[in-house]
Amino acid sequence: MAWVLSVKPTYSIELQENLFKGNIIFSHKNIKNISQLQFRDTPDLIIIDAINNDFELIKITKNALTIRFLLQQTTPPDFIAIINSEYNHKKQLFDIGITDYISCPFISKEINYRIMHILHSNEKTNNTHQSNESLPEQINNNRDSMDSQLILIEKCIKHLNGAISEDVRLETLCRILGTNRNKLNQVFKDHLGMTVFEWLRKQRMHKAAELLETSSLNIVQIAEKVGYMDSNNFSTAFKRIYHNCPSQFRKQFKSSMQS
């Protein structure tokens, strides 16, 4: 069995139709509801939709599921991603432990080669490693704590994604989430390697880059769209991420599209 984590249920159907070797069943799971997944059966493979989900969500999902499997003393399955020809973050996917990728639109030959290769490799590994060492008892005791941390991150990210243009206050955010600033920042650092506002700043800059590429809004308007009332502060924050001021970024993008 393979889980297909996506907001598009059609992917699991298309994969099933294109896989003409093996007896694997593709089961659709909503990537935005991973905290509600049932772990009665361990999948042989997890396929994550990288086209319709941002990289941070993919990273959170991968880390969260890996932890859940380990807490059950189960070896985590391999993760592969669904990408398309325009996807530019393959290296980042491999950096977080994604094993391979398949391209969309799906090609039967590619799907059969990549998926069956991974499954056959896993069978060989399992035959030579029949037993897993038990995890330390303290990790098992932290199962509920870990689940609550991941749910907190999901709720926080969902709220922040809807408040990109707003003046977000940490105290207000904590009150909405029913937590405190120290716990919230620590959970983000533990699982994402950054504080809440570092994460929000990156998301705002990614959104700004998208608007610079796809809209005719001027710099001041884009700054306001991503929560900056001062365009100078926005330009400074943007340059930290993209190493170019917004106007130069847009100019380079247009130039690359024309060449």
TrEMBL record:
Signal peptide: none
Domain HTH araC/xylS-type: 154-252
KW Transcription regulation (keyword) present: yes
Entry keyword annotation includes DNA-binding: yes
Superkingdom of this protein's organism: Bacteria
Database matches in InterPro entries: Homeodomain-like_sf (IPR009057), HTH_AraC (IPR018060), Tscrpt_reg_AraC-type_HTH (IPR020449)
Alphabetical list of Pfam families matching this protein: HTH_18
Keywords annotated in UniProt: DNA-binding, Transcription, Transcription regulation
Transmembrane parts of this sequence: none
Name the UniProt record assigns to this protein: Helix-turn-helix domain-containing protein
Organism (species): Photobacterium arenosum
